[in-house]
Amino acid sequence: MTRYKFFGNLVLIVIVLILLLTGARFTGMERDSFTILETGIQAVKAPLASGATGVIQKVKDFFGMLKEIDDLREENALLKKRIGELTQEIDLLRDYGLENIRLRELLDFKEAHINDFELLTAKVIGRDPSNWYSTIILNKGTNDGVQKDMTVITHQGLVGRVINTSPRASEVLLIIDQEGAVGARVWETRETLGVVEGRGQDNNLLTMIHMAHDAEIAVGQTIVTSGLAGIFPPGIKIGEVVAVKDETSGLMKQAEIKTFVDFNRLEEVFIILEVSDLYQIQQELENQKEGLEQ
After folding, report:
1. For the segment 186-211, what is each residue's pLDDT rounded down to a tens digit?
2. What percentage of the chain carries pLDDT values higher than 90?
3. Cα separation of 197 and 178, whole Å?
4. What's the pLDDT band for 40 if we cut at 50, 70, 90?
5. How far is residue 9's CA from residue 146's CA, in Å, rounded to a whole number?
6. Which one, of 167, 118, 172, lies nearest residue 149 by Cα?
7. Which of 6-42 are b and which e, b meaning 16 or more Cβ less than 10 Å from the residue's Cβ?
8. What pLDDT band is residue 259 in, cutting at 50, 70 and 90?
């Protein structure tokens, strides 16, 4: 399209618009009849006005749709935020529920053994960041009566022993450490078999060593402390036998023990401040009774 043709069309459009506007003014007045020119203008104006109305309505619908989309996006964002908040609340309530169950179990254990031990409740506040030792830090120390070599337990079983103390904290060596060996025996038979030691790994498995080849031990039996070393009281649960095998020499046996305590989830523990004389007597009588039966 040439420049002259373009301007010619533009002039024509302007003239038509002027005529339409003029016609709209005169035809809008109340009269009995229209002139031929006015009738022609009306004929041209009607479809144009109808088309313009349709275009305007579509434009309105388009912008209305855009607003609805924006509203939906905003509502969706608010719903996602609320879902996140509710999820956090559910997780928090679940944690509170689990904590309540755990604390109830600890309280029940403490009440059940009130005549056996003087127990001090402590919270785990830290762990050894290195891989050399498996230790935890408790929020109770010498100000609370904690001393070195005191036994640490939970309602599930043996945890370890105190190796270092300060006025407000103490360090505990866990039985899953290689240095945390414990004299042990089979609870069902009361037979003293050997020593349970850790594997030096961060897991809940122990190895029971120094057992005679003819030692009576089987999968599913419960292993408890023997009390012979003088550090751990006798009769504290350690774990369950999950495997038994002969050593390479063929002269001794080994057993794999799965601990009752989940060392990856330790949060609260008991420190045994004192073992009652009654408990010691009961353990000795049970050992004597088992010896007589055998």
Report:
1. 988 877 778 999 887 657 899 998 88
2. 35
3. 6
4. low
5. 102
6. 172
7. eeeeeeeeeeeeeeeeebeeeeeeeeeeeeeebeebe
8. very high
Confidence check: pLDDT of 130 > 90:
no
Question: Rounded CA gap, 236 and 254, in Å?
Answer: 21
The answer to whether the Cα torsion of 256, 260, 261, 264 is positive or negative is positive
Phi-psi group of 230: left, alpha or beta (phi > 0 → left; psi -120 to 50 → alpha; rest → beta): left
Phi-psi region of 79 (alpha: psi -120 to 50; beta: other; left: phi over 0): alpha
The answer to whether residues 231 and 151 touch, using CB atoms and an 8 Å cutoff, is yes
Query: Any idea what the Cα angle at residue 281 is, between residues 144 and 147, rounded to 5°?
Result: 20
Query: Whole-prediction pTM value?
Result: 0.67
Nearest to 139 by CA among 160, 125, 120: 125
| Residue 76 CA to its chain's centroid (Å) | 27
Please write the tens of the pLDDT for every residue from 67-120.
Answer: 778 778 888 888 877 887 777 777 676 766 767 777 788 888 888 889 999 999
Q: Which amino acid is at 256?
A: E
Check if the beta carbon of residue 121 is closer than 8 Å to that of residue 109. Answer: no
